[in-house]
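Researcher: Hi, I'm a grad student and pretty new to this. My advisor asked me to get structures for two proteins we've been looking at. I'm not sure of the right format, so I'll just paste the first sequence and hope you can take it from there.
Model: That works fine. Here's the first sequence with its structure tokens right after it:
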Amino acid sequence: MVVRQYNEEIKFLEKVSSNCWKIKKGFQPNMQVEGIFYVNSHLEKLMFDELRNACRPGMVGGFLPGMKQIANVAALPGIVGKSVGLPDVHSGYGFAIGNMAAFDMANPKSVVSPGGVGFDINCGVRLLRTNLWEKDILPLKEQIAQSMFDHIPVGVGSKGIIPMQSRDLEEALEMGMDWSLREGYVWAEDKEHCEEYGRMLNADSSKVSMRAKKRGLPQLGTLGAGNHYAEIQIVDEIFDKWAAAKMGIEDKGQVCVMIHSGSRGFGHQVATDALVAMEKAMKRDNIETNDRQLACAHINSEEGQGSTRAFPPHHPLIPVDYQLTGQPVLIGGTMGTCSYVLTGTPQGMQETFGSTCHGAGRALSRAKSRRNLDFQDVLNKLEQQGISIRVASPKLVMEEAPESYKNVTDVVNTCDAAGISKKCIKLRPIAVIKG
């Protein structure tokens, strides 16, 4: 890492628009392309504070600032265009959280890096629309929240309630939602609203280690902990009525359920296995990076094969219902804050390779959140907002308090203003189930 004073660091940064900053070559060694990051005035302060704190004397160790990580990714072999920081960007493992990049698959020097995906592989959000309205469920809100908490396995160490054998997991890995459909857990039309219709046809469970499968077997069908949740939400605002109608959202007051989950120990082990393999490949092929957390392998190597795919615009595997609206983007808020549905844009394809924000993005580390916040205060504030909450680990609530995250509305408004995605629906929570 290049060590400079803060005043020297900011000479490499240039504001190119009200919502976008450029990171010039030289900010970090060996940059092949420039970096950019999207922020509004509020998010900008958080990004620069992160850099300023890292420049203080004695600030050694821990994660690099997000700007430095964006620049390190810009130094990876074969990168094209630019290294992009989306509005939820903050310090992560190798790649910043909210950092994306594209690589030229025809370039033999191009690499694939697990850091670009992270440890919670396939972490994502589902939004279920209902035919219910807020007035229908408010009298039953507490009972519904308790029933969800009783029936959804949540929290660290939680195990699934579905009896599973090794063969079941193998089939689930290869069949995707077709397995869920066969077992009676989804409706056929659910597949019509998932990318690739809920199944990767080239999935090969033999590529997954036995240790990963062993960790994943008891956890299938669980919500987990951390920032994962199930929420009962109410449609609060509709920005694009035509696109919302395509998604089955009719009017304000409609009830939805948002589920945010990931791959738990299974995904973590898959990532760990991939990092080990790629560290060996780096030594064998003499690949150098600015940060050892950016372990990678050439795309055309044995380690890199099977790791790459990206759909062009209007690809037939994007659900038919969304070919005209743009792909729906589900942005989960933090505990007690609103969530959003966005849609993809042609400008987003050009500027950010069809990527947009994932969520709000952390403003405080988990450790700092535990030090600075009181869990009872957090619970009281949620109650005052009329939000029912059920948590498996109340003292971990501080880590997921709204104060621990950036303002999701700032993040979404930045995406909308920059044209990389378009606001469609805003939802507010009335009940939260967490690990």
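Researcher: Oh nice, that was easy. Here's the second one.
Model: And its structure:
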Amino acid sequence: RKTPVLQIGADIYCDTALIARRLELEKALPAFFPEGQEMIVATFAAWADLVVFQHAVSLVFQPESIAVRFGNMSPEAIKAFIADRAGLFSGGSATRLSAEQARHQWPTLMARLEQQLQREQGDFLFGEPSIADFALAHPLWFLKATPVTSPLVDAYPAVSAWLGRVMGFGHGA
């Protein structure tokens, strides 16, 4: 299941990684894949999409966070949302990371990221903005959406400052 996000002429692109590559062909500025760093930023973005996102989802979908996140939704809307998400895992091979694993591993992931950002030359993960920054910002933005999970990002000052810079790009047009 994919949600169309980009249309160029009759072509509709639904996959985030494919969209980034397609926009790169349009000479996106800043470049999503800076010259000479294509492999490292693509690999880092894949890690963010697979590992960090899975941790963020596990942490966000805990009862205390859900209560805040969905506090203004009707019970019917919450049931529909839960049924929709359950369908994503039904009959597939995707597995969910347990909340215990996510809580245990999260500090290590963030400490490594904090260290990387403290050592980096420039304001972004690899000096200049790239797909790596945008891919990692997404799950962290997700965590920042409630006061329950926001401290999981706020506890890391370099990460928080970096996220502010990335989010400063806005949501596109």
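Researcher: Is there anything I should tell my advisor about the second?
Model: You could mention this: The chain has a mean pLDDT of 87.
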